[in-house]
Amino acid sequence: MRVFETGDGQTVGLTQLDQRPVETEQELESILNQNPDVLLDEPVLIFSRQPSLDPGLPDLVGLDQYGNVIVFELKKGLSGTGSASEETILSQPQNYARALGPCDYDDLNELYQEYQQQIRSGEWAVDESLIPAESLDDAFEAVFGRVIKPRDYNQYQRMVIVAETITGQTAENVRYLQDQGLHLQAQEVQLFESADGASETLATTVVVDYDDRRVRPSRVGNPTYDEVNREILERVYPQIQSLVGGSTVGQLVNSFDSREPRLHSEHLDHPEAVEFSLRVKPRTDGQVRVTLDVDNDEEAVKTIREHADLFEEHGFEVSHTRSRHRVVMFTWEMDSFEPLNQDEVLDEIAETFALLVELSHEVFGASPQ
To answer: What b/e readout covers 202-221, taking b as 16+ CB neighbours within 10 angstroms?
Structure first.
């Protein structure tokens, strides 16, 4: 790629700019983080940078206009050379995409909350303008000018290899993996500077692309299992009514047909920020889960962790890193809907949910009314 400066229009001829090699991958990462508009030929919202995943730390993670997750793997110089071999630069984004695949909206929003904290603390030298809103769904609306349902996030996982130069071998491998069904692209990003070094120009080219119809969701959505949600929570309510109040369970639950119904206790001694959620997703996530969630109350989270032994002795998992969603949880691995047709399974889930509510009230000194 050659880049020329046109001047002020009064001088005849063009001045060719010299390519300035990127000094470090950290520099390339910062440039792209600060300027997401240069990534791909479409709008992109970067919502996470180097999040801690089981396979490692992906460079940048974004969303496209459909809510699909995009993993950006960055490489200074030639792709598939140096510390990032041809095999590594192809396998790493696949591993990250696989790790992010099961994430729902709440999981992605947690990553976005961490990203906000990193930027505001100065960990990443980028502007706070990259945080257009406090929640991920509001940030999505601010960037793309549209709203999508929480269930429509992350239907596809996309991967982009970004390097100063995409080698012929990398391009060939990316096309092959595209043919195998992977949503993989390759992009070149190069810096050019004027002869006197006074100005720089950024040039980008998507070397290997695909039609966006390939990742445009069908919007069929995931099942919400509203009848199962109602059945479980109605079994729960008689066991906890003396604690949580209300005359019906419907008064305490946000919505039975929501993706994740939440129950709120009306007990005066129980923190308003602490809620209980039910997540029934055997076909999509292979799990059913009951959780204790906290909405922006550090003291409540501290109290819960101080009583971690009480929850854990009853089989619950207590997180010492999450401070909002799934602070306490219990999970059943379930890869089909069939077990949820059995009364004993529904009773077990209901009893565990009720126990979580009872333990929470005990921790916060909320006795039966």
So the answer is: eebebbbeeeeeebeeeeee
What is the value of pTM for the model shown?
0.59
Domain 4-215 fold is: Trna Endonuclease; Chain: A, domain 1 (3.40.1350)
Q: Which of 208, 212, 254, 215 is nearest to 233 (CA)?
A: 254
Of 202, 228, 347, give the one whose Cα is nearest residue 282: 228
| Sequential DSSP letters for 293-341 | EESS-HHHHHHHHHTHHHHHTTT-EE-SS-SSS-SEEEEEE-SSSGGGG
Which helix (DSSP H) or strand (DSSP E) does residue 161 occupy? strand 157-165
The alpha carbon dihedral of 250, 256, 258, 262 has a sign of positive
Residues 214-254: tens digit of each pLDDT: 888 765 445 567 888 999 999 999 999 999 998 889 899 98
Quote the crossing angle between the two packed helices 298-306 and 343-363, to the nearest 10°. Answer: 110
Q: Closest Cα to residue 270, out of 307, 291, 245, 233?
A: 245
